[in-house]
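Let us practice reading a record.
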Amino acid sequence: MTPVATSVAHLASEETLSAFGNDPWWITTIKALAIFVFLMVCVLMMIMADRKVMGRMQQRHGPNRMGPWGLLQSLFDGIKLSLKEDLIPEGVDRFVYIAAPLIAAVPAFIAFAVIPIGPEVNLFGVITPLQLTDLPIAALVVLATAALGVYGFVLGGWASQSPYALLGGLRASAQVISYEIAMGLSFVAVFIMSGTLTTSGIVEAQRGLWFAVLLLPSFLIYLVTMVGETNRLPFDLAEGEGEIVGGFMTEYGSMKFTMFFLAEYVNMCTVAAVSVTLFLGGWYAPFGIGTAFPGANEGWWPALWWLLKFVGVMFLFIWARGSLPRVRYDQLMQLGWKVLIPIQLVWITAVAVVRMLILDDASPIVIGAVVAAFSAATLAAFYAWLRSVRRAREQEAVRRAENTRRAHEDSAFGGFPVPPSTAPHYGSSVLAEPPRTAAASATQRVKQKGEVTGA
């Protein structure tokens, strides 16, 4: 049997799933409840950390009144929102309007069910893995739930019967489509290297070397796409307050608004946990700790390593929000379709070719030649892209200089298009104004001054 056939047979067997499906019902219930409580506590702590850390970044204090060091601020915010009057706009589709926040929040909780937090442990006398469940296509479940979550934003914007909310929903759908393609392509490189779609198997494949090192381009692109997937700054165009009031949440308040807020932060927790699972070695101890501490990857210790990696990725969300300005919508779409997706396509092609050569026991010279060819093609494409960007900037500079020159020559150039004063407005109900002369204009100004001053 060839190495490729052996790998396919291993995929079909999925031996890593033998530890799942044997738990008593009460162990499964405890795991599900622990996941729910963990996510809710993470949301409260993340909201507080969002405000505290950004406050320090921006030379100001964060919340410091509610509870010791302001730790209960998020809890009191939730209580305040729940006590607000819950209004439903007149004329909306009530069922869809009410269901949209739930549709946005529930899929994020489901995705966390396939995240491995540790190896098998003794839980109340039962040997069970620190993971609710695993599936032969567990990694695809994460993508499926991410795609379902956007339905809540779209339906909320559509059901609100508001132009701002509808525009926010449309932006959310277009943004998720473009960035989910790049995110899925990041997953493809991981699948190729690990040879499995199970999350526990992907973690096991990183025992020696994390995929964040081996597949660095996929990891970096995933970090960008996970921010776009969660509608966080600098990619929060679906709820851009300066452009469309509040986006798809414009007509929502009280607990419905809270559900949208909850969905955003739970999604952040989910994509951060996925990054730890797929690229940062999952629950395996960081480099050096496993050597110095022989039992680092046994018992409950791996849960600590997983949590530290998780907190580090969550900090990146706050860092990006406090450091980067919001991009324009055309820049957002251009980054997704013209930069991230092409880079991913070239990268996973290179990974697949090299992986197949390794499985077929190709000589190192052939593998080196293939890697050199892909590297040269990538550098050439990058140079061509830089030239095109430079040329576009030069053309933009010429256009702006021409517009500036024309604006100096004609004060009306570039202004808001208004109909001429002598044209009939609003159909035939308002007659056209007579042509104005200098004398008539002076007489009119004197008349208006007299009406105002009483002279």
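A brief commentary: The longest strand covers residues 118-123.
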